């Protein structure tokens, strides 16, 4: 989205400010601001540092969202884009509850953890966002077809007609 906006906003009428996990794009002629907040798994993970996030051993805390979610309040639009779920192995490491260390983890099927994270995320949105003020959008990529058979085994457990947001 930022790539599109940067192209259409006149030179000298735009600015990008980078502060840790935040990148803020200002389009002066449109009186608009777009904030990009780095939270690749939506919840806390060992990939949260935008400068040091590349690791094959990704570890998430599926029920810990507040550190990121506090930055999502009081905005007009929330657009979530989390493609990283399908980038590595079928399993993902999950930090044990109440642990302070990323090394204290268990390997769990990725689709199971995905379901847990989406419950945490949707519960947080329902409890903290004024849906009359804020529009929410979500996008991701599909799981790679090479791994679809492995994912299909566990997907049935999490299928439901709808998920309330």
From TrEMBL:
This is Protein ESKIMO 1. It comes from the Eukaryota. Residues 9-147 form the Trichome birefringence-like C-terminal domain. Belongs to the PC-esterase family. TBL subfamily. One of its GO terms (molecular function) is O-acetyltransferase activity. It comes from Zea mays (Maize). The gene is ESK1_3. InterPro entries: TBL, TBL_C.
């Amino acid at each position: 989205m930022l790539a599109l906006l940067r192209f259409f906003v006149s030179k000298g009428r735009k600015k990008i400010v980078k502060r840790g996990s935040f990148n803020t794009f200002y389009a002066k002629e449109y009186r608009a601001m777009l904030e990009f907040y780095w939270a690749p798994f939506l919840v806390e993970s060992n990939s949260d540092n935008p400068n040091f996030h590349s690791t094959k051993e990704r570890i998430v805390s599926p029920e810990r969202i507040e550190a990121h979610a506090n930055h999502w309040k009081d905005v007009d639009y929330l657009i979530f884009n989390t493609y990283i779920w399908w980038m590595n192995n079928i399993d993902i490491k999950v930090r044990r509850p109440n642990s302070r260390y990323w090394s204290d983890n268990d390997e769990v099927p990725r689709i199971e953890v995905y379901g847990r994270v989406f419950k945490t995320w949707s519960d947080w949105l329902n409890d903290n966002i004024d849906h009359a003020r804020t529009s929410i959008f979500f996008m991701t990529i599909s799981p790679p077809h090479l791994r679809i058979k492995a994912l299909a085994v566990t997907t049935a457990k999490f299928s439901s007609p709808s998920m309330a947001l």
